[in-house]
Every structure is written in structure tokens, then in C-alpha cells.
Amino acid sequence: MGELQVGTERLVERLMKKSGVTVFCSSTGEEVSFEREDWGHGAFTLALLEGLKGEADRLPQDSYVTLAELQAFVSSRVSNLTKGDRTHAFLCRLVVTQTLGLQ
Fold first, then answer.
1. In sequence order, what DSSP letters do the residues of the chain get, joined into one string?
2. What total number of domains does the chain contain?
3. Which of 4, 52, 90, 101 has its CA 20 to 30 A from that of 26?
4. CATH number of the domain that 53 lies in?
């Protein structure tokens, strides 16, 4: 499994160096994601889906979710869902500034 982790981390690093690519991960290769059967997936996926559905649209509340809003929402939400057990919930490098339309 160690080889897979190293390969995945290298892939993420390469993707982040390319212009226009943003990488969100539930955990690093050295961490374990927090999952619950009743959610059907992990805390990160739950928070990401909620954020993309509009819950991350904060300031300004304009029907668009920026990557910065999504990053802040997911980080805070994962911490809440895991009762602080996962404070570094995901790796997000903002390579470009773009928005995800919710309309």
C-alpha cells in the first residue's frame, strides 16, 4: 500500500503544478479518512456535496461557490462532523480563481 500512496501523492503534486487544476483530497497518504456507514461515504464527501449544493455560498451570498468558500466550508464542516477528530480534512491548493455556478 505504501507504493500506492507515494504514487498517488506524486500524481496530486503533478496535477497541482498544472495551471487550472485544483485538487481536493479527503486525506493525505499518511491519514485515514473518517467514514460512517449511515452516510454512505466519508465526512469529506458529505461536506463536499453539501458545499457544492450551495451551503458553502457564504460571503457574498450570490448563488456561486468559489473555491475559497468551498475550502473553508469543507474544512469547518468536516471538523464538526468528526467532532474535531479530523482537523486537516483535505488538501486543497487554489491554482486558479474560478467559481462554480449553482444556478
1. -HHHHHHHHHHHHHHHHSTT---EESS-TTS---EETTTTEEHHHHHHHHIIIIIT--SS-SSEEEHHHHHHHHHHHHHHHTTTS-SS--EE---S--EEE--
2. 1
3. 101
4. 3.30.70
pTM check: above 0.90: no
User: Can you tell me the distance from the alpha carbon of 54 to that of 64, in angstroms, rounded to the nearest whole number?
Assistant: 8
Give residue-wise pLDDT tens across range 63-99: 999 888 988 898 889 889 988 876 554 444 433 334 4
Does residue 3 register a pLDDT over 80? no
